[in-house]
Amino acid sequence: MYQKVITYHRENNEELSIRELLKKWLIPKKWQHFFRIQQDVLINGKYNSFNTIVQDNDVVTLNFNFPPRTEQHYLPGHDPVDVVYEDNDIIVVNKVAGKKTHPNKADEDDSLMNDVEAYLKDGHPYMVHRIDMETSGLVLISKSPYLVPIFNRQLSNKTLHREYLALVNLDAPIDNKGTIDLPIGQDPTDVRKRMVTSDGLNAITKYEVLKKNSDFALLQLNLLTGRTHQLRVHLAHNHWPIVNDPLYNSHTKTGNLSLFAHKLAFKQPFSDKTKIIQAKISKNMYNLICADLKATKKLT
Length: 300
Known about the structure:
Layout: E1 2-7, H1 18-24, H2 29-37, E2 41-43, E3 46-47, E4 59-64, E5 83-86, E6 90-95, H3 112-120, E7 126-127, E8 136-142, H4 148-157, E9 161-169, E10 177-181, E11 184-186, E12 194-196, E13 204-212, E14 216-223, H5 230-237, E15 259-267, E16 274-278, H6 283-293
Parallel strand pairs: 8-15
Antiparallel strand pairs: 1-4, 2-3, 2-4, 5-6, 6-8, 7-8, 9-14, 9-15, 10-13, 11-12, 13-14, 15-16
C-alpha cells in the first residue's frame, strides 16, 4: 500500500473541505470514492466526514489501499542515469540523445526506463511523459503509479510545463517570438514521420529567439500540447528545421539532434508549491551552438 502523510498549509485563507482538498490535489474521482467508502483519508489520525473543513497544520494521511491504474515494470538496464533531482516520490533524469525513453517490447532492456529500473533497485519507475529518442534532456519519472494520474492532469491543465532549447537552420525569416498553432497527423508516405495536416490533432508551440545570425537561430520552445515530434514538425514546416534532425532536415548532419529539454516546472503533488528543475546543456551541444552562431558576425 502506498501511503502519503501531508501537513496541510492553508493558502490565501482558503477553507476547503476534505472533498475539495482532494479535488484540488487532482486526485481522480474514482479514487476519491475509494478513499471515502474505505475511510482511508485521516485527519490527525482520525476519519472524518468529507464535508469536514481541513484546518491549517492538520496532518492529512492518504492510504492508497486500492489497485493503481497501471503496474508495468521493466527489465533492468545497463547504463548509468544522470540524476538531476530526486525525492521520495519522483526522479528527474537527463536523457542522452539516441536513447529511447521506454521500451517498445517487454523483453527490451536498453531504454531510459530500463536504466532507471536498475537505478531504483528496490523500487520501480512509472512514466509521466516522454521525449523523442533523438532528443536529449529532462524526463520526469514517478516512483509510484498513484502519482501518474495526478501528473497527467497537470499536463492537461498546463501546470506541468516543459521548455526546450533548439538550434535551427534558418531557411526562411523568423520573428523574434511567436506561436505555431497547426494540427499534426501521420505522414502517409513514411510511418516514422508526422506532418502538419488539416485533419490532425491540435498542436500548439510557443517560441522565442534567444540568438540568431543569417544562417542559424537558438530558440526557446514551450509545448502547450504534446504530440509526437511536435517541435520538429512545427519548426520544419516553417522552414526552421532543427539542426541534425534525421527525419525533417535536409541539411548535412554533423552530430546529434540539437534539441534539448532543459527545463521542467510542475506542482509538487499534494502541495501548492511549484518545483522548477533545469539542466545544463551538454558540452557537445553547447560547442555546436557556439560554432554555428559564430559562423557569421551578424549575431542579434
